[in-house]
Request: fold
Amino acid sequence: MPAHRSAALRRTFAALTALPLLALAACGYGSQSTESKTAKVAAGAEKIGGLDTVNIGYFGNLTHATALVGIQKGFFQKELGGTQAKYTTFNAGPSEIEALNGGSIDIGWIGPSPAINGYTKADGANLRIIGGSASGGVKLVVDPDKIKSLKDVKGKKIATPQLGNTQDVAFLNWIAEQGWKVDANTGKGDVSVVRTENSVTPDAYKSGAIDGAWVPEPTASKLVAEGAKVLLDEADLWPDKKFVITNIIVRQEFLKEHPDVVEAVLRGSVETNAFIVSDSDEAKAAANAQLKADSGKELPADVLDPAWKSIQFINDPLASTLQTEADHAVEAGLLENPKLDGIYDLTLLNKVLEAEGDDQVSDAGLGVK
Reply:
């Protein structure tokens, strides 16, 4: 780690000791969205541009650990000063996009497919992707008694989290590459694609209702803890083993009206990812603590440890892989001619990265002109 980054982290950690940790209300696991308590603001802190509150959304998944850790350790609230961060948890991309469209949240951590769908359905008028957060953390895990090789997946029942979600699109694309046929909407064909909420998938596996699942962490490792085996890591299908799994999005109106607030959240995100890289064990513990605060449950070590190792936390949104994922959705028949020009605005992220002495990131030609 560069010396300036190490020094910056030490200053950040020292500042954080003066801030109370975020207290969150427990939420029912599996609910579409749950509003959490607001973060506590340090006495005398100044509001950014006079704004009272910024509303932030995220999922209770380890692939959203930048949000989990940043909230738990107070990185976002430190950067926001007297502008209070208010958090809402989601477990489905469409519900988070709906909240963004309705103004219930201003900024959110979300997967690539919901971002693509939200942008295209609104003709590019509702959101921008302003940063990356994570890569990887998706696996095909199966019952080893029923599936011993990739060719054995044919004829089996494999779960994905939701029709058209990021993992569903990836699995449908992989099926097509095997030369097998599946109706994308019904999930019927050479493989039975069973859309199942992540919270339900482990029980479905234990009952024998499914033979495996193409799922993000920590669901994949939960299945492994139940005796499943990893048959394929999706990272192995991508160049450099990197593909976007979590983006940061913002309402365009909010970005236009409150760029300083958006920049503060991005600074918090970059600081959080630096912390995750510099102290992985402490960051992992913080993510687990936030999961417990949100859902009332923490992950056991036999789930948390392997899940954490399979995710890379990065600031680069890996824009070229977003276009590839959109192409996969088109090929599956779930999306028609998406126009993604303008979906990215990485201006503020690159400003933050430059200040930290880090490399700039690319929008792969899909940025605001």
